[in-house]
Amino acid sequence: MSIRPPGPGARPALEDTLSGDPRPAEATATAEAFGESVILRTEDLSVWYGQKQALDRITLSIPRGKITAIIGPSGCGKSTLIRLFNRMNDLIPSFRQEGRIYYEGYDLYAKEVDPVEIRRRVGMVFQKPNPFPKSIFENVAFGPRVNGFRGNLRDLVERSLQQAALWDEVSDQLGKNALELSGGQQQRLCIARALAIEPEIILMDEPCSALDPVATLKIEDLMRQLVPRYTIVIVTHNMQQAARVSDYTAFLLAGEERVGRLVEFGRTEEIFTTPKDKRTEDYITGRFG
Amino acid sequence: MTARQMTAGVRLRVRKLKGVIFLLLCLLAVGVALAALLTLLVDVARDGVPRLSWDFINSYPSRFPERAGIKAALYGSAWMIAITIMVALPLGIGAAVYLEEYAGKNWFTAILEVNISNLAGVPSIIYGLLGLQLFVRAMDLGRSVLAGGLTMALLVLPIIIIASREAIRAVPPSMRDASYALGATKWQTVRQAVLPYALSGIMTGNILATSRAMGETAPLITIGALTFVPFVPDGPFSPFTVLPIQVFNWVSRPQAGFHQAAAAGIVVLMIMTLGLNLAAILLRNRFQRRW
């Protein structure tokens, strides 16, 4: 695997590490239909953990430079779906998938593709803030360091913290242990840490579920500032949050057998005002879930 | 509600009494353990402390009890412990990292795990016999401090592996997730996100293993460490003795003077082991992380 410094130079090298033919975008009832450029696309994607199926034939497109929310009740496979996009599920021994995921038209699960290289381009923020018990600076510098960044680390750290709207609060205490920050600050630090490797997509797995309402609003404001430069996919069980923050919404639902299926995908305001599927309407009006 | 309903009934009083009895039993258990330790300490200190002096620490053994000292044994112990640590530490941590981070879950690792746990319970004299055959004879190291250190390394290896694995397992999965999600490789994750935070636990285990090695006697007697050594080791191939052997030797002499010397030797040995245990506790508290 080749390690390149993050930055504009990284993009042309895409063809080296991601193989497979770029596929022409087929017209499905997904993002293409709304005239968006597609950055991530799944085709008949099914997932199993051992014998247990978790996702069933998900076909979905994620538009570039937008915020896409994935909503649905607990256990519908939202987190499983988002963790496919940076191949974090590979770390679970019993994980198995069928179907395809295309990132910029390249097959993410092709044999030659190195998950480590994918994770450099697709960053992730987790449910519970998980800063390393190191200084603020070292937390942000971790990603660039492991990726062999040669450049002005201090500038990169400052830029990342500014993008994550944390710089003004911590600029004079970069040496402080990250665990001394508040929960909301820790989560913004985790976002800064993800931004420091200059990914194209940021995955957020219920990033506000451990935060209070004020900290939640700050993260949501921050997300709006990060698009269209970055593409954001957010999993949330909070429908108000999906409605407030996202451009597009995908609604997942699991039946009796606990296998997640995509019910509906569309512009967020349409999903929340004029859903096409009865189940979507029932869910967003709070009749279940 | 009347006052009568607010006072404890007979059944509640019986339930509370049971709680008190249990508490007393627990206190008794603690008391017996503490009393035994205290008796030991006081008894040894009464015999040994008057005999302690700089001369005692800085003298070679002698056939005159009042002139005998532990210089050779102290140096021997230091040499042996140094060799033990240098061998057992990298091997033990390496094995623990492999078992926790790399080994898959299959019958082979299951067998490995059971065996390592069993090895930790094998009587130390067996390790002595192994060391005698392997190091002293087969590898022809003789009755050297190197053979002693290697034997002791084998003895503490399972303890170090088990303690290090516990420490590595205690690193929360969210740390590994964070590292992988930033594009770190497996080795980078182990090196930079797992080991630094398991380090205090690993070191604690190692220090405890070291203090165990310091007090072990049987395997060294088996491989033929000497009991009367009027010199300090001048290299890894030098014959040697260690503190517990010196104490053992003195205790088996008939003269009361040697028994006092033995008690003084025990005091020194205890101070060293307790010191190591204290260091382990301090280290653990010092580096305890909030997760």
Residue share in β-strands of chain B: under 5%
The biggest chain-chain interface is: A-B, 26 and 22 residues
Given as residue ranges, the uncertain stretches of chain A (5+ residues, pLDDT < 50) are 1-28
How far is it from the N-terminal to the C-terminal residue of chain B, by CA?
A: 47 Å
Shape of chain B: flat
Number of helices of chain B: 12
Would you tell me the structural class of the helices and strands of chain A?
Answer: alpha/beta
Number of helices of chain A: 11
Rg over CA atoms of chain A? 19 Å
**H/E element string of chain B?**
HHHHHHHHHHHH
Helix share, percent of chain B: over 70%
> What oligomeric state is this?
heterodimer
Strand segment count of chain B? 0
State the end-to-end distance of chain A: 44 Å
Mean pLDDT of chain B: 86
- Unreliable runs of chain B: none
C-alpha geometry of chain A:
globular
Q: What percent of residues of chain A adopt helix (DSSP H or I)?
A: 25-40%
Largest sheet of chain B at a glance? none
SS-based structural class of chain B?
mainly alpha
Protein architecture, described:
The complex is a heterodimer of chains A (289) and B (291). Chain A has helices at 14-17, 78-84, 115-121, 136-146, 153-163, 167-170, 183-195, 213-226, 239-245, 268-273, 278-284; strands at 38-49, 52-63, 67-71, 95-103, 106-107, 122-125, 201-205, 231-235, 248-254, 260-267. In chain A, the strands form two sheets. A six-stranded mixed sheet of chain A has the order 6-7-8-3-9-10, with helices on both faces. In chain A, 31% of the residues lie in helices and 24% in strands. The radius of gyration of chain A is 19 Å and the shape is globular. Chain A contains eleven helices and ten strands. Chain A is an alpha/beta fold and 289 residues long. In chain A, helix 5 (153-163) packs across helix 7 (183-195). By secondary structure, chain B is mostly helical. Chain B is flat. Chain A binds chain B through residues 1, 86, 88, 91, 93, 116-117, 119-120, 123-124, 126, 128, 130-133, 142-143, 146-147, 179, 190, 193-194, 197, and chain B through 104-105, 172, 174-185, 188, 192-193, 197, 289-291.
